[in-house]
Design goal:
Number of domains: 2
Strand content: 15-25%
CATH architecture of the largest domain: 2-Layer Sandwich
CATH topology of the largest domain: Fructose-1,6-Bisphosphatase, Chain A, domain 1
Radius of gyration: 20 Å
Strand order of the largest sheet: 2-1-3-4-5-6-7-8
Largest sheet: 8 strands, mixed
Structural class: alpha+beta
Shape: globular
Bound molecules: 2,5-anhydro-1,6-di-O-phosphono-D-mannitol, magnesium ion
CATH class of the largest domain: Alpha Beta
Distance between the termini: 60 Å
């Protein structure tokens, strides 16, 4: 009989590293530090509903700081967890305008970290899944010097690893270092991430689409026709589609990766670049979806091939199982003008 093994995240990372003798262990240490930040954030997110009841917002924490909004808390926690490990030369966060330098008294390393500290933050007060997204690059600037903006502005296909944490009915950390996508569920009893979803592959057939249909009237005609095609699909292909949209990109894409499906945040006549951020949201999620066998485009090209020009730039995104993303493209290519 098959006995379950207790594969912790740390052990999984170390075993992966042993298969690459050239590895120095720095990336493993970096991922380990990130998982520690994830545990702290998971605890805090789970307490969020108690804030009003216990009046925590007026209180100081153990460090004498006044309690902050959860997304700012997440931003600060990630920086505090990551700035002193000696593995990073620079960071950037969706919550901060400029790059974040490593304090001069800490060692600088060879990696670059970009993150969205709390994605889907409008869902916090309603107890709906939210998440943290991260993206790791190798630096371009000379070793031993402070990291630069150019280190951060690399196309997504230069990522060496990416991942996300969903704080949902349980907390799950999903990452890829390019060889497969693996999910680890946090056991709250003993505070360890345990391998629960080894080698995730996005199902090739799907019946889920995820998009904010409230924006329908602003969409381009090709997209309107695609959504109508899905809604009529039970007539055309004998398969009914279903709409699922949480409003937390990280949770919507996580679900679609397990069940199959396409998530879209398109451009429209009001927002020519869509809404989501290339560096903090789209690149890491595209890296993971591709490693799971799916596709991610901006409607024209692979997300991972976009050459970024600024830290906070936005991009439209179509991301999911390959056949569904290809299908969207067929519609977008035939009709690109607004209705
Ligand atoms: P955030 O990073 O400020 O939370 O915004 C990004 C979020 C995504 O998680 C989500 O998919 C999208 O915004 C929802 O936008 P909308 O409310 O326009 O549908
Ligand atoms: Mg976000």
């Amino acid at each position: 009989m098959h006995k379950p093994t207790f594969m912790t995240l740390t052990r999984h990372i170390l075993e992966g590293e042993r298969m690459h003798p050239e590895a120095t262990g720095e990336l493993s240490a970096l991922l380990h530090d990130l998982s520690l930040a994830a545990k702290v954030l998971s605890l805090e997110v789970n307490k969020a509903g108690l804030v009003d009841i216990l009046g925590l917002t007026d209180q100081s924490n153990v460090h004498g700081e006044t309690q902050k909004k959860l997304d700012i808390y997440a931003h600060d926690t990630l920086i505090r967890a990551m700035d002193h490990g000696g593995h990073l030369c620079v960071m950037a966060s969706e919550e901060e305008e400029d790059i974040i330098h490593i304090p001069p008294h800490y060692k600088v390393g060879k990696y670059v970290l970009l993150f969205d500290p709390l994605d889907g933050s409008s869902n916090i007060d309603a107890n709906i899944s939210i998440g943290t997204i991260f993206s790791i690059y190798r630096r371009l600037s000379p070793e031993g010097t402070p990291g630069t903006l150019e280190d951060c502005l690399q196309p997504g296909d230069k990522q060496v690893a990416a991942g996300y944490i969903v704080y949902g009915s349980s907390t799950i950390l999903v990452y890829s270092a390019g060889h497969g996508v693996h999910g680890f569920t946090l056991d709250p009893a003993f505070g360890e991430f345990i391998l629960s979803h080894p080698d995730i592959r996005i199902p090739e057939k799907s019946n889920i689409y995820s998009i904010n249909e409230g924006n329908y009237k602003y969409w381009h005609l090709g997209l309107k026709k695609y959504i109508k095609f899905l809604q009529d699909a039970d007539n055309i292909r004998g398969e009914a589609y279903t709409a699922r949209y949480i409003g937390s990109m990280v949770a919507d894409i996580h679900r679609n990766m397990l069940y199959g499906g396409v998530y879209m945040y398109p451009s429209d006549i009001r927002s020519p670049n869509g809404k989501l951020r290339l560096m903090y949201e789209c690149n890491p999620m595209a890296f993971i979806i591709e490693a799971a066998g799916g596709k991610a485009t901006d409607g024209k090209q692979r997300i991972l091939e976009i050459q970024p020009s600024s830290l906070h730039q936005r991009t439209p995104i179509f991301i999911g199982n390959a056949s569904e993303v290809d299908k969207v493209h067929e519609f977008l290519e035939t009709e690109i003008l607004p209705d």
